[in-house]
Please model this.
Amino acid sequence: MKFKARTDLALEARELYFESSAIETDVDGVEAEEEETDCGIKISRVRITSKNGEETIGKPVGNYVTLELPQNADFEQRIHTAACKAFADELKRLIGDKNDGTILVLGLGNRNITADALGPKVVDMVLVTRHLIEYMPEEIDQRLKSVCAVSPGVLGITGVETGEIVKGVCDRVKPSLVIAIDALCSRRMERVNNTIQLADTGIVPGAGIGNRRMAINNETLGVPVIAIGVPTVVDAATIAGDTIDRIVGNMKANAKENKALFRMLETIAEDDKYGVIKEVLKPDCDNFIVTPKEVDSAVELVAKIIADGINSAIHQGVDLDEFKGL
Amino acid sequence: MKFKARTDLALEARELYFESSAIETDVDGVEAEEEETDCGIKISRVRITSKNGEETIGKPVGNYVTLELPQNADFEQRIHTAACKAFADELKRLIGDKNDGTILVLGLGNRNITADALGPKVVDMVLVTRHLIEYMPEEIDQRLKSVCAVSPGVLGITGVETGEIVKGVCDRVKPSLVIAIDALCSRRMERVNNTIQLADTGIVPGAGIGNRRMAINNETLGVPVIAIGVPTVVDAATIAGDTIDRIVGNMKANAKENKALFRMLETIAEDDKYGVIKEVLKPDCDNFIVTPKEVDSAVELVAKIIADGINSAIHQGVDLDEFKGL
Amino acid sequence: MKFKARTDLALEARELYFESSAIETDVDGVEAEEEETDCGIKISRVRITSKNGEETIGKPVGNYVTLELPQNADFEQRIHTAACKAFADELKRLIGDKNDGTILVLGLGNRNITADALGPKVVDMVLVTRHLIEYMPEEIDQRLKSVCAVSPGVLGITGVETGEIVKGVCDRVKPSLVIAIDALCSRRMERVNNTIQLADTGIVPGAGIGNRRMAINNETLGVPVIAIGVPTVVDAATIAGDTIDRIVGNMKANAKENKALFRMLETIAEDDKYGVIKEVLKPDCDNFIVTPKEVDSAVELVAKIIADGINSAIHQGVDLDEFKGL
Amino acid sequence: MKFKARTDLALEARELYFESSAIETDVDGVEAEEEETDCGIKISRVRITSKNGEETIGKPVGNYVTLELPQNADFEQRIHTAACKAFADELKRLIGDKNDGTILVLGLGNRNITADALGPKVVDMVLVTRHLIEYMPEEIDQRLKSVCAVSPGVLGITGVETGEIVKGVCDRVKPSLVIAIDALCSRRMERVNNTIQLADTGIVPGAGIGNRRMAINNETLGVPVIAIGVPTVVDAATIAGDTIDRIVGNMKANAKENKALFRMLETIAEDDKYGVIKEVLKPDCDNFIVTPKEVDSAVELVAKIIADGINSAIHQGVDLDEFKGL
Model:
């Protein structure tokens, strides 16, 4: 069995493709652009436009935006403000004119597992207005949009597919747009709690830290779905796999003269990689995750950026300070 | 405006009736029996059988069972075991033969407010099996029933009526029975965190610490609903109201000879009661609750009794120890 | 036994005095001044200057400052900023020149009881620098003062008097100033989570939600102690007592003509008050507290004001944004 | 720089020694014995008796006991009970006759970081009696020993060396024995949350997830210190290092015939190992930890075993059920 690094980021899926292909050419059906703000926030926009792009990168047709915050951004209010603004701007672009009805914000993930609690944490901080607009319409700012927010839990806790619960709620609430927030897996520790991905394709099975089988997208729900994800972990198996690739890569670089050795390195690696990973990560190599020690506070900080960003992207022109519980 | 003590307990509704009626006679359409176990657990069963009973007591036709644990029961494992068993027995009786399909356990209330978090806490501890039975039927004990569990949140957090979310989930899951757990209001501090009420009538609007408008019952969901409630607070206004009743009651007892005084006491109390309560509980007399200091651990303990009791009432004959995360 | 409303606020102790004394004259040894800021924050400064003042008001000689925030202040960033500033200004005045050594911040109270967790929450948010100044002095802003912070727990959890633990820590750390934060009891719901008291007298036995016996003050620790307190609860017994006072007060106002009745009202009230309170608050009238439903978030908000205020009062002239984990 | 796998377990330190030494002979000054209980709990006792043993294994002279629970032990009450008993028996042996005065239980670690919160969690569950014995000696079971318990926090939060705070508390409380609980680092995922180490040597600098500089032992505190540790994480760098060792080991096994290749494998690995690890774990290879996804509940479970075990080891012959808040 061949080991494959696991990632939920389109950015990394594209990287993986280029790593494994000989030459870095453009892929037909994939457009990409990059930008960097004053505060050092890198914005990459990948647009997959055709079946060919979809198959090459392994992500469905749609728009993928990635924001990478500078390292240690968590300690400065200035970066927090800039990150909220950059995120809100990208979200606004993806929302376009889909916010004329109710928006349903979904906090996916398990609130009892720190690294998976991003979605529920965002839901707890999002400004919810649907009930105010319904029950006391004359008392609130007319520019506020109708927003509701649900954390549906995870299969292991509820016994029900997340997608089923979401579908049930959508059938009652009939939103015009769904925004789903979820914790993701990255390939690289340097992206953890530091990178925000937006996509207008919804969330497809197998993504996230937990296992979700039913897609949450336009096809299953009947409304557009914007997915917002932050990698909060790297699979321990991915770290082990990367380690092998690098040590073997280094050996190969040193073994260029010695053809027998070079060939052996290639063969051995292919054969042994998965076995070694399973041995190092006994007893359960699929269940171990790598996080920074301070994962608890890091997830809190990025949840706040996303919640603030969602609030300001949706309720444009409203001074939200007076609604903010700080 | 006349002040009325707020209660969600059928037991107390009946008490209130007898307090305000002159003679303690039987009410037509209301049957009541009491029992006490070895461990000092008092079990009262009130059955409302007719429209007359319904109107007299102010609770819909159905069965209401109340378990009162001995004070300070929280410190003894022995009482915990006895309470689980007594509770499971009463629950089994109410479930009857309605557990041949999937059972949906609902954790009502706001998990971010300690005194309202009972329902979500129970859901976190209930043994959920529906997904196991669906995805790996051959690997699990055939006697396990199918159980799923959802904490739908509260209107102020989600922006959606709890009843709407529950209806949406029911439409997808199609349970044969719903068991809904909620934190209640009592009239008496001595019942707080100490009393468990079961009812096969579902939950009617206005109950609980928060405000729920849409009923969760057979009529709205199309399946039988067993409601389990524990009073975790007394309204501060109820305490104030009770205080007035008692002080005035004492004065009346002392003023029997003096007719003018007696009449004055009756008039003044009626007029002033509500005004005094509002004055004492400025600025928001509907928003203040009375709890024991250690409400956090008390709610945890009673949630554990309910979760253990639900598990053993549903999965009869299965040794649940091997599924228990302690 | 005569019932006495319980309060930890000097402001209320003074009110209680004037309520029980016939005419509102000045008390010798007590100076008081009031101020109101633009944002509607009321600042009262009570200075007790003599033994006579001490005995009259029942609080030791020293400075007591009370900030009262406008109701619902929690929803506006603007008020939060103003409250931080007003609080920091008063704190600076009390600190004076006592911040030339290490400052020890104490988070008193039980972090597992929501209404008592104020102190530990503040400690979690205070900027701690002592170890940085000690281990990497050249890497940090020279204007930062040395701050350390400890949450010593409560007697029921640790088995050790809080004062003993604090004394032990002081003996090792040798601070030049102690700032102790604690949750208090008020007489009035309208002050709960809304009022911040500062005092340069330390904390005296019996204060707070829990029971602390050993004083934490200059006398016991050998360093000046500034106490910061916020009422987070009212004793349920106080609410009941106030209710009786008011209903009886109303009756008296209506009974002025009828001397016999008037006299009876006075007598009955004195006799019965405590008995009624104990009856209403069975089984444990000293253990019940009144809080707003949303006590959890309210305590969080006021803890943030205090932590931000302490940080800016201590580290004057430093831009703390770059240290802030938001 | 040579990379060295990090471990806090004496068991693993001994393994590491045997891995790096050519033949598995006995080490002078190190005695070891193993045992397995009915329930599959493995108990290893390592006794380091001389300077030579100390230097060979890298742990100070003393007794080290390790309990390894069977995998997935967390799901069975039966295993929980057996683990409590086995742990209590070993603890009793180490305590010997040192429990004739007050015992101080220390919960080391940071309660805000899930994987480091083991100590504070245990402290929250330990039965504390010192204050009862002091303030109401006639009301409690005379067989109860005097126990107090403190969670001193960590340097990064308090600004004070943990050892300093502990020393200060000891100077006031004057215990006859200290029991310190801390979260540890292991080399192997299979030991995480599954292994309990007891040692009568105290805790030496550098141990644990955080960094502690001042030792907590007989020398610094003046009383015997029993340390109880559970590995809750593996350093990500250790995982990466182990991966390299294994892949290179596999290659060596296949390259036995080819001496040049074999020699190269040995050289390359030594040179590159640390560089590869730093590259894979950018940007901060010392800050990343590997945990099971469900680390939150796993730490909770093992904390309960330790707390129950401590309680029953200390208060021998007392029925603790009546004190147990379950």
Chain D touches chain A through 51 residues (CB under 8 Å). The two ends of chain D are 51 Å apart (CA to CA). The longest helix of chain D spans residues 259-280. Chain D is about 40% helix and 20% strand.
